[in-house]
Amino acid sequence: MVQLEDVLRARGRIVDSVKTTPILKSRQLSKRCEAQIFLKSEHLQTTGSFKIRGATNRVIQAKKEGVKFVAAASSGNHGQAVAYIANNLEIPATIVVPTDANESKVNAIKEYRGSVEYCGTTSAERIPRAKELAEELDGMFIPPYDHPDIIAGQGTVGLEILEQVEDVDTVIVPIGGGGLMSGTLIAIKEKNPNVRVIGVEPELGYDTKLSLERGEITPVEGTHLTIADGIRTTQPGTLTFPILQKYLDELVLVTEDEIRYAMSFVMERMKQLIEPSSATTVAAAMFDKVNLNHEKVVCVISGGNVDLQKLSELLVKTEGSN
Q: What Pfam families does the annotation carry (predicted)?
């Protein structure tokens, strides 16, 4: 299992490629939630999401091992991150994306000189294809979440939260395959086990909640239906799941309407464009999914890569809007 020392080493390895993202605060959001709400703003990260942390940690290691080609499977954010860092390190990259991939994310992959291949609509379809490409071209597959280097890289988010928000009580994190959550859990729980860490999934993508309830990894179908495209996984990872079992305090679900409302609220009141996957954490706070009790709460905003052509479909009118 990944340890705190691995996260600390990852931080030193990726420091030149990754930003320390700011903490944002909204008086209106805090008032609405009856708590001190802070946003850990990974939507302002290089490539627009937290994914650059784990991808950089893994691809740097690949470079040291002499790898000449990398492949990844991604709904967009991980693919952008792998393409970006691979391009910086002069390693060719191919990203396997779903057929319904966010257009802006695909365009960004191409801007970073990554090749794009479309395959299916779920991670269960695109991951085998990316592994096949890596084998065919004698390269390396860069997993989206289920690898120690990926988990350790994502865990640097947790280190920053502890340093930026003094006496934080609760951290709310979106869960897809579990890379961000498991890394954050290791960083926070091994430094301060008193901090409560809560995961959020869409009701249309509850694979981790079901797996935790059953005590074993349990895949679900239909996760591609949620607007939270960044966390459309069919099951948690084999490496991430035991970490969640060990450390996670609670996991809650949010509806599609709640995600839309939270995304719209942050855009209207805070002037921040965040993607639906990020809005799940804000939705959990806004719609009383978690007992916050006037605490200091950090909602991890995992990314901000939104297809602007579909933006109107994602936004709704909020209270007090004209």
A: PALP
What's the CATH architecture for 4-49+149-314?
Answer: 3-Layer(aba) Sandwich (3.40)
DSSP H/E element including 210: helix 207-214
CB 286 within 8 A of CB 32: yes
Contact 220, 207 (CB under 8 A): yes
* Catalytic-labelled residue, pool 17, 41, 51, 104: 51
Examine the residue annotation and report whether 51 is marked as an active-site residue of this protein: yes
pLDDT grade, residue 104 (50/70/90)? confident
Q: List the catalytic residue out of 75, 182, 278, 302.
A: 75
Could you check whether 4-49+149-314 and 51-146 share the same CATH topology? yes
Residue 322, pLDDT > 70, answer no
Query: SS3 of 125, please?
Result: helix
DSSP 22: P
What pTM was estimated for this model as a whole?
Answer: 0.95
Q: Is 75 a catalytic residue?
A: yes
Cβ 158 vs Cβ 7: under 8 Å: yes
